[in-house]
């Protein structure tokens, strides 16, 4: 089974417009994501899906494979679906363009795990270490059931632990931080275009909830990789400090 990796790169980010070309250690933010993904051993191809001419022109300079998509796409999954007929893989790996510190070894482990589990969708999770991160609505939480099945994703702290001070919750039960990377079966994405936008997807602004509501199985893979995606100006400054350290 072959793997296509797609990096959706949206220009009009609600909280940080134009972030894909934001300077990060002398290179555009998007370059760092692409450069890390290209180190994978198990990827057949790496494609950047953009929606703005400036980003397209910049990516072409790197010699990367790039495809222009419609700016009306509401999520990375919609963007990938729109170019599915141009992709070669049986498994499609979705790595968001702002995952500029993504661990390529984790991505290869995802491919290996997906081949073993044969699930509709596979996504990595990291166990929260402090309550401040749980409270942050930029960090997506996921409730995990038996056999690693994802039951629900939310920007709110879930599950709710009744009768205990929230600051003590992570001492009583594991809270899982969802990392914005997905591995889909090709046939699952083919069905995606026929699914209506779900009400939960609309209110949470989380694309994976469309699959949950439609009855698809999403399983999680635990990882030690701590996601450092860039969603706000504050995140960008943190990323710049990390680049300098490395």
Can you describe what's shown?
The protein is α/β, with parallel strands linked by helices and 246 residues long. It has 2 domains: 1-102, Spore Coat Polysaccharide Biosynthesis Protein SpsA, Chain A, CATH 3.90.550; 118-179 and 186-226, Spore Coat Polysaccharide Biosynthesis Protein SpsA, Chain A (Alpha-Beta Complex). It has helices at residues 29-37, 53-61, 76-82, 104-117, 131-135, 169-172, 186-192, 199-204, 208-214, 233-245, and strands spanning 3-9, 23-24, 27-28, 45-50, 65-68, 91-95, 121-127, 141-144, 150-154, 176-178, 181-185, 218-222. Strands 1, 4, 5, 6, 7, 8, 9, 10, 11 and 12 form a 10-stranded mixed beta sheet that branches. The chain has a two-stranded antiparallel ribbon with strand order 2-3. Strand 4, helix 2 and strand 5 (65-68) form a beta-alpha-beta unit. The mean pLDDT is 93.
In short:
The protein has 246 residues and is α/β, with parallel strands linked by helices. The protein has helices at residues 29-37, 53-61, 76-82, 104-117, 131-135, 169-172, 186-192, 199-204, 208-214, 233-245; strands at residues 3-9, 23-24, 27-28, 45-50, 65-68, 91-95, 121-127, 141-144, 150-154, 176-178, 181-185, 218-222. It starts with a strand and ends with a helix.
